[in-house]
Amino acid sequence: MAALPIVLIVAIADNGVIGDDNRLIWRLKTDLRRFRSLTLGRPVVMGRKTFLSIGKPLPGRETIVLTRDPGFRPEGVHVAHSLEEALATGQRIGVGMGADSVTVAGGADVYRQALPLSDRLELTLVHATPDGDAVFPEWDRSAFVADGRESHPRSLDDEHPFTFATFRRRA
């Protein structure tokens, strides 16, 4: 059986910032709805700090938390101690639940590790330049082909304009 594709999902500011002090730095309800639709019914791999910032397992998804802490065992999630273990768990769970992909939801170090293995990037390009301590890693754009863009203006639900962009790894 073929492996499920690995999909990175991330909102990135124009200056590369993705967060600050383990928290979201913008209010984009449209992006949160998209994140939900891209992850619902799929395994979601995230780092411990990202999980702690959310505070609970994501409903309707199987959450896999990547941590170096051998004592970290929150209820309702799967724990992995390496990216390889997290992705293998995601593959096993994803196949069992009939998912079409394994999703990766941060943070910065998890993205850095998973980027070379990713099949698709689902980016929200936030048109702002906030301060922050978490930055999305540099990536080889020539390894991917753009597969769709959708621009959104600032609105009552979204404090910044942004663009949804999908990139697929070249064969």
How many domain modules? 1
Number of E strands? 10
Unreliable runs, pLDDT <50, ≥5 residues?
none
The dominant shape is globular
* Largest sheet geometry: 8 strands, mixed
CATH superfamily: Dihydrofolate Reductase, subunit A
State the end-to-end CA separation.
19 Å
Structural class: alpha/beta
Helix content range of the residues, please?
10-25%
Q: Roughly how many Å is the radius of gyration?
A: 15 Å
Q: Please identify the top-level CATH class.
A: Alpha Beta
Under the CATH scheme, which architecture would be assigned?
3-Layer(aba) Sandwich
- Determine the strand fraction and express it as a percent band: 25-35%
Mean pLDDT: 96
Strand order of the largest sheet: 5-4-3-6-1-7-10-9
Along the chain, the helix and strand elements come as EEHEHEEHEHEEEE
Query: How many distinct helices?
Result: 4
